[in-house]
Amino acid sequence: MNKRIVYLDHAATTPLAPEVLEVMLPYFSLQAGNPSSIHQLGRAALHALDDAREQVALVLGCTRREVIFTSGGSEGANLALKGVALAQRARGRGAHLIVSAIEHHAVLHAAEALQTLGFELTLLPVDRNGLVQPSDLQTALRPDTVLVSVMYANNEVGSIQPIPALGAICRAAGVFFHSDAVQAAGALPLDVETLHVDLLSLTGHKCYGPKGVGVLYARRGIPLQPQINGGGQERRRRAGTENVPGIVGFAAALSQAEAQRGAASQRLSHLRDHLITKVLGTIPDSWLNGDPTQRLPNNANLGFAGIEGESLLLLLDQVGICASSGSACTSGSLEPSHVLVAMGLTPEAANGSVRFTLGQTTTSDEVAYLLEVLPPMIARLREVSQ
Ligand SMILES: *Cc1c(COP(=O)(O)O)cnc(C)c1O
């Protein structure tokens, strides 16, 4: 049996960094107070919470009160979209939303849920490389638009959107702008002023932090209707006893990812480019999905004519390589990725695509191993599908 595990699915989740686990541990046991309690253990927890908030604010270039701790990327996106949309409609500001066609389901499905509540939704198209054109956003804006949401970097194809330009358009139109920056943490700058964003969501487990914790940045004064009602935590914007160990871990992970961003991006983009060049050079009828340059440093989404990506994933899994495809198996039928379809790929080409996402522990040996096993696998799959 092959014992070797090569994890090339860092866009799905990342392992917890050992340093992050270390700072979390006391808050599970010795320091397990509730930040709302007035006794010394409560005060210690509140202090840890304040420190974590300060660390996050430093990375985002915002104030502490603009940081809302959440349970992750999905909650952040839901709070941003529903929170702003419902608050704006209640103030008579209209009921039109714009989101890109390649958003994560956390944003897409939150927008669709708002549709059932009477909101109108415009999906922004993307080009062949998965990029939103600022002029398309300009055209889609209406007097009754209350919120625009465009992700910073796409989780499937790694394309990086022109967020500062899109944000400037929204600001000029007086429309609030949210960006799902989950995949950007540790790879791209997160300064909210430079990005011209009013809301930005992050999650711990995509940047070597814990699962089940994240942040929504919400610019001061932005109308936001809470989506979880209860106690007065997070300045009445998100009720519930704070996940203190998670929050402490999130802040440590985000700070570490930001500190290592330059060096990590350089190393990973080098490995990524080697992988892409070799695959395209040695495997006939293969292609790269997503933009060749406006792309996350760790993402290689590759397509192979005449194969099912799902079958390739199974073969890779047999030799210990963990990768992923955008397709979701819904009730037995293979639904092509909505991202690849929005980019203009045929359902067959979309289903022939596989995503490899590298990470902190990925070595050039591991990439070499993938490059060794991949060509015969593709050849074998093409043979059986003849
Ligand atoms: C993973 C992911 C999310 C969801 O984050 P969770 O913390 O798993 O809820 C949202 N957006 C993008 C782009 C993601 O990759």
Automatic annotation (TrEMBL):
<dbReference type="GO" id="GO:0031071">
    <property type="term" value="F:cysteine desulfurase activity"/>
</dbReference>
<keyword id="KW-0808">Transferase</keyword>
<keyword id="KW-0411">Iron-sulfur</keyword>
<keyword id="KW-0408">Iron</keyword>
<dbReference type="InterPro" id="IPR015422">
    <property type="entry name" value="PyrdxlP-dep_Trfase_small"/>
</dbReference>
<dbReference type="InterPro" id="IPR015424">
    <property type="entry name" value="PyrdxlP-dep_Trfase"/>
</dbReference>
<feature type="domain" description="Aminotransferase class V">
    <location>
        <begin position="6"/>
        <end position="370"/>
    </location>
</feature>
<protein>
    <recommendedName>
        <fullName>cysteine desulfurase</fullName>
        <ecNumber>2.8.1.7</ecNumber>
    </recommendedName>
</protein>
<dbReference type="InterPro" id="IPR000192">
    <property type="entry name" value="Aminotrans_V_dom"/>
</dbReference>
<keyword id="KW-0663">Pyridoxal phosphate</keyword>
<keyword id="KW-0479">Metal-binding</keyword>
<dbReference type="InterPro" id="IPR020578">
    <property type="entry name" value="Aminotrans_V_PyrdxlP_BS"/>
</dbReference>
<dbReference type="InterPro" id="IPR015421">
    <property type="entry name" value="PyrdxlP-dep_Trfase_major"/>
</dbReference>
<dbReference type="InterPro" id="IPR016454">
    <property type="entry name" value="Cysteine_dSase"/>
</dbReference>
<comment type="similarity">
    <text>Belongs to the class-V pyridoxal-phosphate-dependent aminotransferase family. NifS/IscS subfamily.</text>
</comment>
<dbReference type="GO" id="GO:0046872">
    <property type="term" value="F:metal ion binding"/>
</dbReference>
<dbReference type="Pfam" id="PF00266">
    <property type="entry name" value="Aminotran_5"/>
</dbReference>
<dbReference type="GO" id="GO:0051536">
    <property type="term" value="F:iron-sulfur cluster binding"/>
</dbReference>
